[in-house]
Amino acid sequence: MRPPRSIPLNLNLNLDLNLNLNLNLPLLLILNFLLLFPSSGQTVIRINQLGYRPSGVKVAVLLSRDSATAISSFLVRDAITGRVAARLSSMVDCGAYAGFRRTFRLDFSGVTEPGGYLIEAAGTRSPEFRVNDDVYDGAADFLLTYMRQQRCGFNPFLNDSCHTHDGYVIYGGKDDSTFIDVVGGWHDAADYLQYVTTSATATAQMLLAYRMYPSAFGDAHDAAGRPRPNGIPDVLDEATWGLRWLLKMNPRPGEMYNQIADDRDHQGFRIPTLDSVDYGFGRGRPVYRCTGEPQGLSEYKNRSTGLASTAGKFASAFALGSLALKPIDLGLAETLASRARSAFATGVAHPGVCQTAPCRAPYFYEEDNWLDDIELAAASLQLLTGDTAYGSAARQYGRAEGVTRWMLDNTARHYQWYPFVNVGHYLLAAEGGSTARAFRDLMQAGIDEVYNRGKSNPFLFGIPFIWCSNNYVSSTLADLILHRTATGDRRYEEMEASLRDWLFGCNPWGTSMVIGLPKGGTSPRDPHSAFSHERGYPVDGGLVDGPVTREIFAALKGVHLSKPDPYAEFQSDMAVYHDDWADYSTNEPTMDGTAGLTLPLAALAAEGRKPGMDRQTLVLGGVVRMDTTAKTVYLFFSGHEFDDDSRTIRSALQKAGVKASFFFTGDFYQKPLHASLIRGLLKDGHYLGGHSDKHLLYADWRRRDSTLVSRERFFADLRANYEAMGKFRISPRDAWAFLPPYEWYNREVSDWCGQAGLTLVSFTPGTRTNADYTTPDMGSRYLSSGAILDSLLAFETAHTLNGAMLLMHVGTDPARTDRFARRVPELISELKRRGYRFDRLR
């Protein structure tokens, strides 16, 4: 970027320079001012990269290694223009934390205007972020990307099948070494073991998320996980995949299996369809039957004492599945209901824990509680059947379970107190009455323990830094949301916001803990996964294990760092996190952790959802169709190099009384000969927006997920576009929708737009009006104006144009003499005849 044009900036004198800026001050000056405050490891500001809802708690955290750092106020700037939106002094000095000597909580909850912002304080600034009600829209569905990739049997990501010969019974008595069909379910993590413990929990949590927040989920995939809608929300398709596998693992009353394979699986990275580990059965793997007694085929054994923990998980998943699937598949729902009752009876008859089995390594899921599983099973069966006997049993088991143990102890062995959230307490607390109050109190007592441990640190973080700490964060976040839902008590909102923000970048490392969310932000790039390490495949949607103490990291077998640590300056004895495939303790995504996050993200999306949002069509995060239930069409016109049809278009719109939306590049806005056109369009009441400054190609034409510009270049180009628009007094608030150049983009680009406070829009696929730029020398790609109009009307007959966005250009290459702009009056007239109205973006 060029240096300032004229005014030299003095760091000591000009902190207030932009408090009273107007649109006539050169934006370039503001941008250079921002560049004088680069972020560094010495002082950093951490934010939630997904963004914040306007009405919610909004806090950034400033971390400094300099003990002399002191601030009395901070600035909130517009992410595009750099103008000051607020100067605030609402902050809390939290002293030292981890490896930082000074830390501050910067509260900007008073910033409620939707848009893109950044925080500036102590000579540094945060990344850009968004404030809008829709910042969590689609996030819960994004997690399902990872769940589909973890599927065993047919894997839609690979479009191939794996482990199709599972498996052979062990610990089965007379049935030892006999074959049982248990193909299906999900791989647990980077390895290919499969556990009822985690799979049933994941299934139940997805079902509860859908039961409570159905509007948060969409339908973009079929039951096999392939990218085509089937009329069923994707989360139900995924939960059903889990339920069908669980039915195989519980094939008849009293017969239960707990896991497939064991730690002999840990023989290096390989793609699941190429799994060559030999367990002695040929191509099949061992299937561990539940016996209620200690198991382990080598030197290590578990400490199993009964069946109730596994039986309870079967029963709750089956009961919640039956409730959800009754309207979709009555036969399956009835089977699930029957199996839920028998599994519950088995658990009652065989109290105790059924732990997963180790083999050659000492690590296994050391679950030591089972009362919570039977409690949830009974509470779910009461929902399903209405039988109060189940409710009485749930209350009995729930009282005996008490406060979730890890919350009291602030530590646990690996999965010792699992699941990490007690959903049974919530179901009982939501009933009402004096008994319900007792379970609300139990929920609150656990929350208070975590809150009190974290209330004095900058992240309000009271979660222990033990293996899978992110799962504990997600579970506590779910606990807080469930408690707020059951009680209406909002006293923990700041804690809830802090744990939410921690997962998406407001943590010492400044990274999201969900791979690829947001796509245009900082998230794990080198997870412990064969998909990414061996093939370079993305592992989007997976929640990684999260930070552990340095002591735990050093003590685990087989963990190391494969390369220099990019987060070295942010590590401490308190907690380390490594974006490195060789650290399975902090950077391995897990299936159950990912599924457990669906409820919090669904809640956040549903609470911010406005009417009509679910009727829009999105592609890669960009809106390509507005309300599909309204017979409204949106005319889009873009311009960069040519403008020879602009006056014809303007005249046609005037005569028809139609408002449209125009998107121009910075180059277009800058040309003096376009000034009268732009002023005229504004006078006519049309929408005017951005189309980039230099009409850059953002994504590779053949590999769309390959972004061709850096984040820095994107933002610089975007800001220059809006600087040019500022000369016509068009602000980012006015021009909230952004049309990417060439109408070609990817998820990363749409996420960058979101961080700038903009919504990426594009034309509705299949409408083909955007072909008005083609010229005869393009051969088969050329479409005449008549062919374009005929194609559009045929599309309308087949699909309707409800909410459609029809893109045209205000000018094209002179080689095209058949100008579609001349057919605009005919297009408008015909669509009006067919009952459509026209509108601009608002």
Write a concise synopsis of the structure shown.
The protein has 842 residues and is α/β, with parallel strands linked by helices. The strands form seven sheets. Strands 3, 4, 7, 8 and 9 form a five-stranded antiparallel beta sheet that branches.
Any overview of this molecule?
34% of the residues lie in helices and 12% in strands. The strands form seven sheets. Strands 3, 4, 7, 8 and 9 form a five-stranded antiparallel β-sheet that branches. Strands 18, 19, 20, 23 and 24 form a five-stranded parallel β-sheet that branches. A four-stranded antiparallel β-sheet has the order 1-2-6-5, with no helix packed on it. The chain is α/β, with parallel strands linked by helices and 842 residues long. Strand 21, helix 22 and strand 22 form a beta-alpha-beta unit. The chain contains 24 helices and 24 strands. The N terminus is likely disordered. The longest helix has 22 residues. The radius of gyration is 29 Å and the shape is globular.
Provide the helix percentage. 25-40%
Radius of gyration: 29 Å
**Which structural category do the helix and sheet elements fall into?**
alpha/beta
Please state roughly what percent of the residues sit in beta strands, choosing from under 5%, 5-15%, 15-25%, 25-35%, 35-45% or over 45%: 5-15%
- The separation of the N and C termini measures 33 Å
Number of helices: 24
- Uncertain runs are 1-40
Categorize the overall geometry.
globular
Instruction: Profile the largest sheet.
Output: 5 strands, antiparallel
What is the average of the pLDDT values? 93
Please provide the count of β strands.
24
